[in-house]
Task: inverse folding
């Protein structure tokens, strides 16, 4: 039995990774800012992080925030992991962090570089956006009477449970470096995904594609955050919506 620490273990991905590893019989410690006994802010590190890592063989690093602080958190995690003798650090990143000049993506890429240079055994898996993220995005965009979306932007969402299963398998294996990306089953236009969400939730909104400008928009429009050759996910966005909002969504 392996002792594994999952950072961000109460989050959308980390919770499922934790459940999977425990189901396989491993001792899993959950680290988050507010969950005892390992309530630790990775950006600050300290004795709490040292206690969480004592005796740990593998770390699965899922903790992340688009509001910033990921690089500081990774720096503290890596330094403390080295002192604790951790043998394997597995990290979840995002497809396109090296293609799309978006601030959060740049931070994720910087964390990848830190991990590669850490001296620890490491594995990095990049995945496309989760279905859950798109639902959250569309929930916000559907509040006004008109649903405005960036024009001509593709997306390739993936089911978070599929990513969790892959990440758990990688964590239990030997360090593998940068592994092949994991993407959802379909590359779709953002407006088609939005219309699927509206149908599934019974909302009526005009969907208006809005052209934008700048390097980041051009990179998204070019599909830098998709991986058509790695469409290994099985669950479509409509299937996710049906499970979440009712089976009627699957008919559209």
Result:
């Amino acid at each position: 039995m392996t002792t594994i620490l999952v950072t961000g273990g109460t989050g959308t991905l980390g919770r499922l990774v934790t459940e999977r590893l425990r189901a396989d019989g491993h001792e899993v410690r959950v680290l988050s800012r507010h969950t005892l006994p390992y309530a630790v802010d990775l950006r600050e590190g300290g004795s709490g992080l040292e206690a969480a890592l004592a005796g740990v063989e593998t770390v699965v690093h899922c903790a992340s925030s688009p509001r910033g602080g990921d690089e500081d958190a990774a720096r503290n995690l890596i330094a403390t992991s080295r002192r604790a003798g951790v043998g394997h650090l597995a990290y979840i990143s995002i497809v396109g962090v090296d293609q799309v000049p978006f601030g959060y993506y740049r931070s994720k890429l910087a964390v990848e570089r830190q991990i590669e240079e850490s001296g620890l055994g490491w594995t990095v898996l990049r995945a496309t956006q989760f279905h859950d993220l798109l639902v959250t995005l569309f929930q916000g965009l559907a509040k006004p009477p008109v649903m405005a979306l960036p024009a001509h932007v593709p997306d390739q969402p993936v089911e978070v449970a599929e990513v969790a299963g892959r990440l758990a398998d990688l964590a239990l294996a030997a360090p593998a470096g940068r592994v092949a990306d994991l993407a959802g089953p379909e590359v779709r236009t953002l407006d088609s995904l939005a219309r699927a969400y509206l149908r599934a939730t019974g909302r009526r909104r005009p969907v208006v594609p809005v052209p934008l400008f700048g390097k980041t928009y051009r990179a998204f429009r070019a599909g830098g955050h998709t991986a058509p050759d790695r469409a290994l996910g099985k669950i479509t966005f409509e299937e996710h919506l049906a499970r979440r909002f009712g089976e009627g969504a699957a008919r559209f």
